[in-house]
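Dear H.,

Thanks for agreeing to be a second pair of eyes. The structure we're designing against is below in token form, covering all 295 positions.
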């Protein structure tokens, strides 16, 4: 469907006024137009598209306006409206069955690579992403560790379908093995052989989930968010179960919520199977990642 640059520019200006009124970042209008009108960031910033005689849209202008109303009225995250989330160097398909991968989670891949480079963790062997959601971490690992076999697990079959599609679309279909099940359960055949476990599990206390911003609480899967009464139930389970699967020297690496670092470090230290427990912060300086090595 085609619209003139002027029509689209007028729509954009109207949308900007509404975004301000609804306290939604103006950048989201650009994201929407990048995905749906194929405009690049510079053209959007300079508004140079205004003079184009025609622009191809993936939908009609009235459908675009309806989509935008869903953003404003229903607080649907823009990534679910476009069906795309950008994470590291990947464009990932996302649906409401999967958590929208967050920028801070990108650091898990850098920490895994750092563990391989600095501590001699075996890059060729088996790496697992537990609670894969959109497949972001598994795909990030497959890309960063080209000799590794990657295993991705999720209990949600709908999430796994999205993750599989993302892996196929990005050329990692043959590098990642997908399993439906609870955490390590489908991976019994890897006991004692895993070089790295990476996970961004649900870690928000149940009582906090309902207080999150409407975009999250109304639209993202609660299965991906709810970490039980203290938020640490899944992490506790991963601390308990991983030693049976990790090889000696294998890395245990998890994302957690602000404020959980001390409790997670204590769990790892007191377990007895882990050494070199470390906490890493995100780009805002908040402690968000725990890493340890299987003794
Ligand atoms: C916070 S999301 C992380 C998704 C993705 N890895 C990311 O970082 O964007 C947690 C994921 O764990 C999955 N999950 C929750 N409980 C699980 C369980 N018991 N076993 C396996 N996966 C589980 C959810 O379905 C969800 O996809």
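And this is the sequence the design step returned. I haven't edited it by hand at all.
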């Amino acid at each position: 469907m085609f619209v003139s640059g002027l029509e689209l520019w007028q729509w954009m200006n109207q949308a900007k006024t509404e975004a301000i009124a609804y306290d939604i970042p103006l950048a989201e209008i650009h994201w929407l137009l990048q995905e749906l009108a194929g405009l690049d960031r510079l053209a959007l910033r300079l508004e140079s598209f205004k003079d184009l005689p025609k622009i191809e849209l993936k939908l009609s202008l009235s459908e675009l306006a309806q989509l935008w109303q869903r953003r404003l009225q229903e607080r649907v995250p823009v990534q679910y409206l476009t069906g795309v989330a950008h994470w590291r160097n990947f464009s990932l398909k996302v649906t409401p069955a999967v958590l929208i991968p967050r920028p801070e989670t990108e650091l898990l891949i850098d920490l895994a690579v750092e563990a391989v480079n600095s501590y001699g963790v075996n890059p060729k062997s088996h790496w697992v992403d537990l609670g894969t959601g959109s497949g972001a971490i598994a795909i990030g690992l497959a890309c960063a560790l080209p000799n590794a076999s990657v295993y991705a697990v999720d209990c949600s079959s709908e999430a796994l379908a999205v993750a599989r599609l993302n892996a196929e679309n990005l050329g990692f279909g043959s590098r990642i093995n997908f399993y439906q099940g609870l955490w390590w359960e489908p991976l019994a055949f890897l006991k004692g052989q895993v070089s790295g476990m990476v996970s961004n599990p649900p870690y928000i206390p149940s009582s906090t989930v309902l207080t999150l911003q409407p975009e999250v609480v109304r639209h993202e899967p609660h299965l991906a968010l709810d970490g039980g009464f203290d938020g640490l139930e899944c992490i506790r389970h991963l601390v308990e179960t991983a030693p049976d699967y990790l090889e000696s020297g294998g890395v245990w690496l998890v994302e957690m919520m602000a404020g959980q670092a001390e409790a997670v470090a204590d769990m790892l230290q007191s377990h007895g199977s882990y050494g070199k427990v470390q906490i890493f912060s995100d780009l805002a300086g908040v402690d968000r990642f725990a890493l340890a090595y299987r003794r």
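Two observations from my side: The radius of gyration is 21 Å. The chain has two domains: 2-73, 103-294.

Warmly,
E.
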